[in-house]
Amino acid sequence: MSTISIPSAAERNAEQRLPLRLRLAQRGLDGVTLLVLPAMFFLLALFVYPFLYGLVLSFEPKEGGWLANYQQFFSEPFLYTTISKTLWLAIPATLINILVSVPVAMRVRLMRRQRLLTTILVVPITLGTVLIAEGLLNYLGPQGWVNRVLMASGLISSPIRLVHNYWGTLISLFISGFPFTFLLTLSYVTGIDPSLEQAAATLGANARARFRHIFLPLLLPGFAITFCLTFVQMFSVFPSAVLLGEPAGSTRVISIAAYTAAFEQYNDSMASAIAMIMGAVQLAIVAAVLGLRGLVYRGPAGSGKG
Predict the structure, then answer these.
(1) Are 184 and 229 within 8 A, CB to CB?
(2) Are 200 and 187 spatial neighbours (Cβ–Cβ below 8 Å)?
(3) Which of 58, 96, 131, 170 has fewest C-beta within 10 Å?
């Protein structure tokens, strides 16, 4: 039989005489652990509290029961179709960014001036979506350089509509999201042990076979994380959809619906409900991708150089 040891009075008195710092350290609360307190405070103040406040506010509609906002959202096509429109923008933009970043990262990792090239490729992330939209309007607009060159060369007879529609928004999302996706992809590509590729090349595998049998299985878990982070960024599209898309048509994304409810209809409760739905959709997609991530190979060679 196991016995429970009860500290004696002398041991309790000795423990109480210890400095507070040592008593906290015995319970795992040393000085290093306490450094996390400021981060926890900011997390609670800037994320947890606003989220809980918005969640409670979404169940306090101006009219009707506590689910009236959600019932209204899913009963009006003009509102619930914003989910599919946002997904139709976010998912293709995410996949295009990943597909383009892979060959670029595979090439950049072999170059000498990798830092210089990386810096050049990530410059668009410093511009911001508004400046990117302004540039695209000048380049791709009806009187932009692209249409002028095509018309002057005789390839087209009238301007091609490349902005104020779905394609203008998609191009903007690609430009603004590529640097972020590229940096994540490059970190995963350079983290694979190069001796694996060298061994496969010694055995006669060509570049395509080496990528398919070595790089791709090791990169798939990283691609899942890259997809999730890039998708969340793309799903929150707002300025591009307004400046380069059709805010009342094909690019009326869910963030525009939330903005309209908050700042045009002055219905903060409805805006909070739309924001909660927006977060739930993102969480569902991310959870599904991370669930599929567990089905692919995750081995010791996939996380760092040997």
Answers:
(1) yes
(2) no
(3) 131
- Domains in the chain (CATH in brackets) are 62-302 (1.10.3720.10)
CB 234 within 8 A of CB 173: yes
Residues 247-296 pLDDT 10s: 988 899 999 999 999 999 999 999 999 999 999 999 999 999 988 887 76
129, two tokens: 């979506």
Residue 118 identity (one-letter amino acid): T
Beta carbons of 137 and 143 less than 8 angstroms apart? no
What is the C-alpha separation between 3 and 1, in angstroms, rounded? Answer: 6
SS3 content of the chain, % helix, strand, coil (to 5): 75, 0, 25
Helix (H) or strand (E) holding 282: helix 268-293
Judged on CB neighbours under 10 Å (0-12, 13-18, 19+), 59 is: middle
Farthest-apart Cα atoms in the chain, separation: 98
Residue type, 144: G
Q: Which amino acid makes up residue 264? A: E
What does the block give as tokens for 93?
A: 């933009």
pLDDT in tens, 176-231: 999 999 999 998 988 888 888 888 888 888 888 888 888 888 888 889 999 999 99
